Amino acid sequence: MAPLPLTRPLTGQDPALIESDKTGADPQFLHAVLCQLGLPRSPTPSRTFERTSGRASLSLQAGRTFNGLKWVDQPLPSGTRPRLVLINLCSEAVRTRSSEVDVGSSVREFLRRLNIDPGGESMAQFRRQMLALSSCHMTLAMMTAQGPAQVDAKPIDAFQAWHTDESGQQSLWPGYIRLTDKFFESLLDHAVPLETEAIGKLQNSAFALDVYSWLAHRLCRVSDANGIVLSWGALKGQFGQEYADSKNFKRKFQEALQKATDVYKDARLETVPGGLRLLPSKPPVPRAQARVTRALRTPALAPPAPAPVEPAPPATINPHALVSVTALEQVAAIAPGWDKYALAEQYKGWVVGLGEMPRKPDAAFLAWVRKYTKGRRP
Asked: Which is nearest to 186 in space by CA: 102, 101, 99?
């Protein structure tokens, strides 16, 4: 993909300062961690799901629900339905600044709001996925300067109404869903704006929704005019852990990327040997100002690297001074099989996100490599 004309670097986003999107409609929102780490895209028999990217990691455990007679195992939430619901719930919570989200008077009304056919198999599929989403256990983890930190962040409090079949049991639908306090508080600090029209066009592709959400969160935080390069191996680790064949993953990812960039016109990235180069880009939703104004309330839920901070002056953090040739050559001994250049680029983005130049750059980089690759496959 050829890059568009260079734009100025942009800083973090504050939902309170977001303008309407290009269509004039209110923008949608999604938590920054979920933009970086999506749910399963296809049904899986597994009871657990893990995904890691940079400093952030997501762990899901399938839950159980009581049907009145016995406890029933629920699958992991997967596909487009849980994604669309989470986007809708996050959007309403950010707009109203309330953890209690109005979902209408019935299941059918809520489905119509999501632009999902409320009849037949679509209703049954939606009900199954909502039982899975409302009962699953979610844990978010983050590597901080003090070491790894994690927090339980189940997004939705127990929501019995997903059991309703809409046939004479309308009273089971309470009209609202309550987000858990931890998830809601973190969401207000780390909500990423998404273009409403784009979500509508991508709503039938879980992969394209994931890639679009990731680009919306990531591209406007690239501060280096030369961009950053992500290897296909790193992208597969983030988006394609379920693909055994790397070529198949690359083909599927490029298809999803094409759909995402078709709706995100200002996305600037290039295909380069071995991966993708991400370049500074305008966010998909214009904003009045780009400045983070709220203090971080939950350190463990800081957004994935690089964190949304104002770009440091070049004299304070020079990305090219963070990793020397000597340190780069030592990566092979510390992390056999890993792409040293991809690790270096990821580390640079992480340090820029922290906003502080390490006192001993080489030692800091090699220590980060040891922690980042320990126990993980290339």
From this structure: 99
Q: Report mean pLDDT in 10-residue bins for the chain, 378 residues.
A: 30 40 71 89 92 84 86 93 91 90 76 76 79 87 73 72 49 70 85 92 94 94 90 88 84 95 95 93 73 37 43 51 82 85 80 73 85 79
**How far apart, in whole angstroms, are the C-alpha atoms of residue 226 and residue 222?**
9
CB-based contact 323:72 (threshold 8 Å): no
Encoding tokens for residue 326?
Answer: 């000597």
- On whether the CB atoms of residues 304 and 33 are closer than 8 A, the answer is yes
pLDDT at 159: 62
DSSP string, 165-215: -SSS-GGG--SEEEBPHHHHHHHHHSEEEE-HHHHHHHTT-HHHHHHHHHH
Q: What is the DSSP letter of 287?
A: B
- State the virtual CA torsion across 293, 294, 300, 304 in degrees, nearest 10: -30
pLDDT for res 77: 93
* pLDDT of amino acid 116: 78
- Beta bridge partners of residue 102, listed in sequence order: 176
Look up residue 302 and give its two tokens.
Answer: 């800081």
- Whether residue 306 is preceded by a cis peptide bond, meaning omega within 30 degrees of 0, is yes
Which of 156, 142, 138 has the alpha carbon at shortest distance from 59?
A: 138
CA dist 56 and 48 (Å) reads 17
Residue 11 and residue 9: Cα distance in Å, rounded? 7
pLDDT of the residue at 318: 67
Torsion of CA 87, 93, 94, 97, to 10 degrees: 180
Q: Which two tokens stand for residue 347?
A: 């580390």
Query: Do the beta carbons of residue 116 and residue 81 sit within 8 Å?
Result: yes
Closest by CA position to 224, among listed 151, 321, 142: 321
